Amino acid sequence: MPSYFYKARDASGRAHEGIEIAASEEEVLRILENSKLIPVFIENRAPGGAAAVRGQLARRYYEIVQRWRTSVPPVSVALFARQLSTMISAGLPLVRSLRSIARDHEDKKLGVILERVSDDVQKGESLSTALGKHTGAFDEVFVSLVNTGEISGTLDRIMDQTATYLEKAEALRLKVQAALRYPIFVLSFAVLILVAMIVKIIPMFSAIYERFRVPLPLPTQILLGVSRVVVGNLLLAGGLTVIAAIAAAYFAQTERGRLWIDRTKFNLPIFGPLIRMYAVTKFARTLGMLTASGTQILYALKVMRPVPGNRVLEQGIEHVRSRVEEGDSLSKAMTEAQVFPEMLVQMTATGEETGQLDNMLTRTADFYEQRVTAQVDGLSSLVEPIAIVVLGGLVGVMLLALYLPIFNLGQAMRQGLLGH
Fold this sequence. Notes:
There is one protein chain. By secondary structure, this protein is mainly alpha-helical. 75% of the residues lie in helices and 5% in strands. The chain is built from 18 helices and three strands. A hairpin with a 5-residue loop joins strand 1 (3-9) and strand 2 (15-21). Helix 8 (155-209) packs across helix 9 (218-232). The chain is elongated, with a radius of gyration of 29 Å. Residues 48-55 have low confidence and may be disordered.
């Protein structure tokens, strides 16, 4: 197990440093939080060399495989949180509650995971530690909320709030997906039509036009030329398409690629503001939920960094966390990050001044969620005619280019310019 060197300070401002042996940096953060210490600096003191690199690669591969094997839909996790809250409120023991939920839960994969969790809890592990082993099912935010509930003795209340939080987040995600699904389908369909016309339909017209002895219009020449090149080099074109797709997928996995793609999403016409507002809503609601549960702000910013699902906002959260570590207020750090809406910054500042940060963040998230819902409803009526116009325009331009020479067919026949 790796060791971590840390620097921290207590409530009085006195400096502390030391080395903790833990499974991850997140576990060190939880240890420091339980010790009432505010982390300033954490560094992995793993041994160097090629063996260490191989070990890190092996660990990352194992984590990816494990996450895939234990991946569970958020709606199943929300149902688990609701059931656990009800059973704990009724006074049932934790292990008995976990085993009962595992047997009855409709998601069999989650049921298997909960059986393992209940075994670990029975052996003496805390619930948060046992859940933290299954990263595909329970993310860091969920584990942090469970840990806070265990420490404060309010696990039933926090699980009930967490279930509501997950249900709202899932409902909003489905709304945004529904708004984006139709244009993606239309775009994909347009690409398929374009490929079919280039490979099958245009060559048929090309054979007819070869008998003409009149110059073809420029749009027709371009279209026939593109079709001739693609059909004549079909294997090469397919290979280049596959290579381009692999290169794009690799680029999308790099830090630079993810940042470029996510920044482009924010700048898309029509859909950009919706995507940005959706990411900001997730940030505000998650941070409000964590602070309401009593989670320390630095740790909250740490665990929720991937929650918005956009690299631009993730970098902004990391900047905010580093500035707060240095003593800045949350609202001032958010202003410096320059990725958060002004309203969210002002509501955060008000929350800090009044001591109601969690309430202000939740109210802001509610406001943005209403705006997202309104935009989704508006886009539903706007996207369909736009998609029809785009698709019809694309097909119409290609057909017009193909049929332009036929408009001159009568004149060509009168002049005797058709070959025999």
